Every structure is written in structure tokens, then in C-alpha cells.
Fold:
Amino acid sequence: MKKTILTLLCIIGCLAAAVAQKDTVTVISYNIRYNNPDDGDNIWDNRKANSVTMVNMEKPDFLCVQEAYFVQLEYLLQNLPQYGYIGVGRDDGKQGGEHMAILYDKVRFEVVEHGDFWLSATPDVCSRGWDAACHRIVTWGYFRDKKTGKHVYCFNTHLDHVGEVARRESVKLITQRIKEIVKDKKAPIFLTGDFNSDINSDIFDPLKKVMKQARKDAPVTDNKGTFNGWGSAPNNIVIDHIFYKNAKPMIFKTLNENKYGRNLISDHYPIKGVFGI
Structure:
């Protein structure tokens, strides 16, 4: 027990020091649930203010959202003026359909480079891949910390919920594209998303060769489910993940507490990682 307490105190002390030196990056992956008018009491209008509350309380440097329609992004940006965003709609490469947008703290970070690619055999044009039911996309950015000059890469995606071949081929493509896109080999890299797959699935084998799992490696972590199905799902469905490279995971947390003014702010819980860089 004493050893455990000392370990926790050490972690807290290191985290406090790192935060004071701005040597941490906080990343949240959040399937926001698309603006579905058939969601009854869970419609976006009833929970959008709570999503803003979550961001203001958790203060991520990068908020990586999935399923966001442009109208939802507009609301977030209007009510979170400290954030900018990158990303396009998956259905037309503009504003059509769901976005896998990355909102970033524009007070701290600036965008150096960014892009998008589709999860298909023709990733550089708007296209549907393999046996996928929907267009699927990856948004990525290369960011610079304005004060320290440090750089960070962030990738965000949402794998198909139907196509097994699509999920497998998508992970292969993401892994390859990360290798191609990342020129700064020492910069921290984060990959977030709703992968519609348990972490033990062998589809992740190519990715695990180049990136690590925040939930597994953080000294302070949990094993809670990430999909709640508006309260109908068991608390063991873990399909939202944060992968990392060139960083030190310090805290991983599933944000399933009722502290944002509403019990469920989406049908997925946001997940949060704090990393030393």
C-alpha cells in the first residue's frame, strides 16, 4: 500500500511539474453522435451545451471528434472561441456529411500543415472503400507550440461499422500514411478515433508495430467501456482508442462521470489522454 501511494504521489508530482512547464499535451477523442433528429431526448440540441461544458472542464489541447456534422462544429467553435479546427466532410471533401475534425487550442498551437485522406483504394479522392457502408476519412495536422517551438502530429478517424474488410484495410492504410506523412521523426504522434473494434482485434497488428496504446501504458488508467448506447450497452465495449508515439502517457481516463450537467452527452464516452512530450 505504501509503495502504491508513493508511486501515485510521484506521478502527481511529475504531472504537476510538467504542466507548469507546458510539457504535456492533453488529447480527447470524442464520438459526438451525429445530429440525428430521431434521437428523442438525446438530440443534439439537448446535449450540445454539455459538450461545451465537457471541453471547458477537461481543457484538451486537441479535441478529436467523430460523426460531427458541420452545424455541430459551428456550435462548438462559436462557444469555444479558443479553438480552431481542421477537417472536411467525408461525403464531399467540403462540408458534406460527418467530419473527423480536430479542434486545437489556437492560443497554444498553430497549424503548420494539414490534410485529409479517405479510407479506400483511392485515398486522395472522395471515395468509399472495400465493403464499407459509408465514406470513411482521416483528418491529420502537424502543429507547432507557439511558445516552446515543439511540434506535434495528430490523426483522427472513424472506421466503418459494417465492413470487416474495410476496417482491416483501413488500419493498414492509416499505418502506411502515417509513415509517409510524418517527416519530423522526433515529434509526438497521436492517433485517435472510434475504430469500431476491440483493441485485441488482429486488425491492429500493423499499427501496433509503429504506435502504442495510451490506455495500456498510462500509469493512471482505467478499463471502462467507451460505447454506452445511450445507457443500454454493457460497460465493457471498448472501441474508442488513443494511440501514441514519441510521448510519455501519464493519464488515461474514460470520461463517464455525470459531471457535465447531463448524464450522457453522447452514445460514446469521451476518452482523455495526458502525455508528457
Summary: Residues 16-21 have pLDDT under 50 and may be disordered. DSSP finds six helices and twelve strands in the chain.
